[in-house]
Design a protein that fits this description.
This protein is mainly α. It is about 60% helix and about 5% strand. It contains eight helices and two strands, in the order αβαβαααααα. Strands 1-2 form a two-stranded parallel sheet. The radius of gyration is 20 Å and the shape is elongated. The two termini are about 35 Å apart. Mean pLDDT is about 90; it is low at about 1-5.
């Protein structure tokens, strides 16, 4: 019963926070966020909870890392007193390392972390998140500027890279035409995010 109650709390908090993020997006602001896994309080389902939250919120630039304890912090001192420190902080919270013994089985933590990255940075997951963002985002009114030759060349290059050369190009073309015809004012932003996604996928591939 306690477990079910705790799960309900997570769901309610998640729904409230998603709605808050959408309200921010509707006011013409983009939300970027960093997420951490590896806390002592993380339940076994934390990985799927984070995936669901990130996807539902439409936070396109979502970064996820494994918890580390920097020297001098309260967390570092507590873990030191519990004799759970194992090494120095690497400085890279995306290299699957941590400088303390987590409550969760370490291999389960790493596997769950990798699942998050591979899911949210996959073409399907990432492009769906852009669509969610475009649906909610209300771009501020700006003075229209002429499209320059440099802009056109940039569009040609990214279309070649993401719409011709990359595997899974159908996801790009669905976003391309959706943003072009349904959200024309947000088309440049959608294409910029598509390029970000290519970079994120390189990170996920190397995990």
């Amino acid at each position: 019963d306690d477990g079910l109650a705790e799960c309900g709390k997570y769901k309610n908090r998640g729904r409230d926070l998603v709605e808050t993020i959408r309200q921010i997006q509707r006011r013409g602001l983009m939300v970027s966020a960093g997420f951490i896994v590896g806390f002592d309080s993380d339940p076994p389902g934390i990985f799927q909870q984070q995936i669901k939250f990130i996807q539902n919120s439409g936070i396109v630039t979502a970064m996820v890392g494994i918890l580390n304890a920097p020297a001098g912090t309260r967390l570092f001192n507590r873990l030191k007193s519990e004799k759970r420190l194992v090494d120095r902080v690497s400085g890279d919270n995306m290299d699957c390392s941590t400088n303390f013994i987590p409550r969760m089985d370490y291999q389960n933590l790493v596997n769950g972390y990798r699942d998050i990255l591979k899911t949210i940075y996959s073409q399907n997951g990432y492009y769906e998140r852009i669509k969610t963002f475009l649906r909610e985002y209300k771009a501020p009114k700006e003075r229209k500027e002429r499209v320059s030759l440099a802009d056109l060349l940039t569009l040609v290059r990214l279309t070649w890279a993401l719409g011709i050369r990359e595997k899974g190009k159908r996801y790009f073309w669905k976003l391309f035409f959706l943003s072009l015809f349904r959200y024309p004012q947000r088309f440049p932003l959608a294409m910029t995010m598509a390029v970000y996604g290519f970079h994120f996928r390189q990170i996920a591939v190397n995990m």
